[in-house]
TrEMBL record:
Pfam families for this protein: ELO (PF01151)
Membrane disposition: Multi-pass membrane protein
Protein name, entry field: Elongation of very long chain fatty acids protein
Subcellular location: Membrane
UniProt keyword annotations, A-Z: Fatty acid biosynthesis, Fatty acid metabolism, Lipid biosynthesis, Lipid metabolism, Membrane, Transferase, Transmembrane, Transmembrane helix
GO molecular function: fatty acid elongase activity
GO CC entries: endoplasmic reticulum membrane
Catalytic activity, as annotated: a very-long-chain acyl-CoA + malonyl-CoA + H(+) = a very-long-chain 3-oxoacyl-CoA + CO2 + CoA
Biological-process GO terms, alphabetical: fatty acid elongation, monounsaturated fatty acid; fatty acid elongation, polyunsaturated fatty acid; fatty acid elongation, saturated fatty acid; sphingolipid biosynthetic process; very long-chain fatty acid biosynthetic process
Enzyme Commission number(s) from the entry: 2.3.1.199
Coiled coil region boundaries: none
UniProt record similarity statement: Belongs to the ELO family.
Transmembrane segments: 26-45, 65-82, 170-192, 204-222, 234-253
């Protein structure tokens, strides 16, 4: 019981005294439990309940819904990217070391609120998976997809609770830019075959996401080698997230593009070999038909003897 009391006291001390007091009364910021419950509910819906409900149903046609949803996400991402730049990045923030400004200055509060809205955007992204389930595209609900969407709200919650600003917001700034490109792609893809034929750059979108995580990794872990008034725990928190997501996205890239291309090339090579063998058999058939039983050879000999006698 004493251990539980100490753990409870430590938890309350962390949440009440070591977090940013500016965000304590903001929606969903008082405790991590509501966010954790929402994330677990999301996983249950997209992996268990959703597929079960859709098992005997026809896929939903969501063309217009997808167009408006992706358009909203593009606009939302553009606004978040703009807020992160105006509040700090490319204006007053240092890419080498940027402590958190815990004051209530207009720019500091603007960045803190931008961090909260970025956290909220992780919930709107749940609809990516929900729409896959409703359209019965269950192969799209991959390990990468569910892990990425399922843990991001929880991860960002800690950032907003303790460090809503400063060095780690580089990840949010970069991520919103990638989402502008990503949801623009999805928006175009939702418009149908007339537009989809021009979307040859999907694999480069995945490559862009991988580059994002390399930059986040390098940007975060540089603080391990320099003095900076920024919580070391969050350096590891952001850096290890970048490592995890880079591994997941690179594995997806290999499966979706490199191995798929190799399989396609192997299949093409086999088809070519079969075609060559088929042509080779067709060329040999007349010879086999003419000489296999000796009758063809006898006819030739008779024709040659007739030609000599006539001379």
């Amino acid at each position: 019981m004493e251990v539980l009391r100490r753990l409870a006291a430590g938890y309350h001390d962390l949440m009440d005294n070591k977090s940013d007091p500016r965000v304590n009364d903001w929606f969903l910021m008082s405790s991590p439990l509501p966010t954790l419950a929402i994330c677990l509910t999301y996983v249950f819906i997209v992996k268990v309940l959703g597929p079960k409900l859709m098992e005997n149903r026809k896929p939903f046609e969501l063309k217009n819904v997808l167009i408006y949803y992706n358009l909203f996400q593009v606009i939302f991402s553009c606004w978040l990217f703009y807020e992160s730049i105006v509040s700090g990045w490319f204006t007053s923030y240092s890419f080498r070391c940027q402590p958190v400004d815990y004051s209530r200055s207009p720019l500091a509060m603007r960045m803190a609120k931008g961090c909260w809205w970025y956290y909220f955007s992780k919930f709107t992204e749940f609809f990516d998976t929900i729409f896959f389930v409703m359209r019965k595209k269950f192969d799209h609900v991959s390990k990468l997809h569910v892990i990425h969407h399922g843990i991001m709200p929880m991860s960002v919650w800690f950032g907003v609770k303790f460090t809503p600003g400063g060095h780690s917001t580089f990840f949010g700034m970069l991520n919103t830019f990638v989402h502008i490109v990503m949801y623009s792609y999805y928006l175009l893809a939702a418009m149908g075959p007339k537009v989809q034929k021009y979307l040859w750059w999907k694999k480069y979108l995945t490559a862009l996401q991988m580059v994002q995580f390399v930059l986040v990794f390098a940007h975060a872990f540089q603080l391990l080698f320099i003095d900076c008034d920024y919580p070391r725990a969050f350096v590891w928190w952001i850096g290890m997230h970048a490592v995890l997501f880079y591994y997941l996205f690179s594995d997806f890239y290999k499966q979706a593009y490199i191995k798929k291309t190799k399989k396609k090339q192997m299949k093409l090579n086999i088809e070519r070999m079969n075609a060559v063998k088929s042509e080779s058999k067709e060329m040999k058939l007349p010879l086999l038909n003419g000489f296999s039983n000796g009758s063809g050879l006898g006819d030739v000999r008779q024709r040659m003897a007739g030609a000599v006698a006539s001379q």
